[in-house]
Automatic annotation (TrEMBL):
Family affiliation: Belongs to the CapA family.
Record-given protein name: CapA family protein
Pfam family, one: PGA_cap
CDD domains in UniProt: MPP_CapA (cd07381)
Protein species of origin: Paenibacillus ginsengarvi
Highest taxon of the lineage: Bacteria
Ranges in a coiled coil: none
InterPro entries according to UniProt: Capsule_synth_CapA (IPR019079), CW_Biosynth-Accessory (IPR052169), Metallo-depent_PP-like (IPR029052)
Amino acid sequence: MTWMDWKTGKMHIAPGDPTQQRWRMTIAADWGAKQIWGDETMLEALMIDSPEQVYGDLLPYIRGSDLRVVNVETVLGDQGVPLAAKGQNDKRFLIHADARTVNALTAVPFDIGCLANNHTLDMSAEGLNETIRVLRQAGIQTVGGGMSGAEAEQPLIVEAKGTRVAIINCSEGEQCRSVDGSPGAYGLELHRVQSQIARLRQTEPDAVIIVIFHGGREHTPTPPPYVVHDLRAIAEMGAHAVIAHHPHVPQGIELYNGVPIVYSMGNFVFWQTDPAFYRHAGYIVHLDWTGSTITGLEITPYQVHKDGVRLMGAKMREKFAEDMARVNKLLADPADIEAAWNAFIDHMGIEQIARSLESGAGGLRSGDLKATSRMLNLFFTPAHRELYIQAMKRVMNGTFGDSPPWAKELVHYWLHDSFIDAVNLDAE
């Protein structure tokens, strides 16, 4: 089995055809034009006035690619009203910014903006429509979100150095998912993705197919079992690469039947106030090709600050490589994947899980639409539903709290290891 070499940041996949053109595709994770969980507008202003500064010494590593893709997790512009499900006054969960922050996308420049995420409809359908308009007017193509279900799920076909590239962008979506043809994000349904890949094999037989997924449980060091199942299933359907983001922390990379699967790249330009190191550490993914043959995968790790991203120093990168190699090994054993998932549930604790259910039930009883919507989301979104079901199963069979010590230690470390201490490693 081929494993990711986290020290070098490289994975060799296959020999290339010397008669074909070499090209590189770079994919970045969550891009947010405002600090999350805060009202500061420093980052927004920087994106408008000094956009290149946001990427610091990481910028050449993105610019050096032939095709550049980013998850645009911000509503751009001043159109629309807050999504009712998130609450008119609950600004913590709403991400929208001045349309001029698109400068920080064109300055790179990013070629493609992914819209299948759980903030696509933060300012309702009008906000999504304006975001699409702003991006396209700036020369950035979009995929994964639209004003109808058909538009949201439409694959994007582009060309890089003479090779056709088909991108499918889907997500769990939460309240922002397109339902029954409504505006929103393309929600992952395996049978629909399978049909899309089969059609592309017919209509674009020489194209490479990239599936970019936004989903999974936030903050876990390893993907939950259902995510591993779904992304491996997509690889088996014929995708050439499967790339995921959303958990806000980095996770592992595997080569599954010759197909690279990236489970989470962590945050990108997406500052959060949590002091944990892995909320401020991530990596961009470079896919290397000759023609339609993928030859390798390389990552560039970085640290996330209030004013953007920066390359990791040598000592921080060494720490990062050791930690990532540790979690990566767990992907080889389904029992380890489940143990880490159970440890994350144990860390939440039965009281927090019960309080969430009680809060939603109280809102349902009183007719509170916001609380009822959040209760619905617990059942509608796999990241929540799978956690609550697994927790209740473990209560029923008497195993809640019994995850192995190594798994509990790993979860605690991923959630609480200090970012400041990691920064100071290279300051010593």
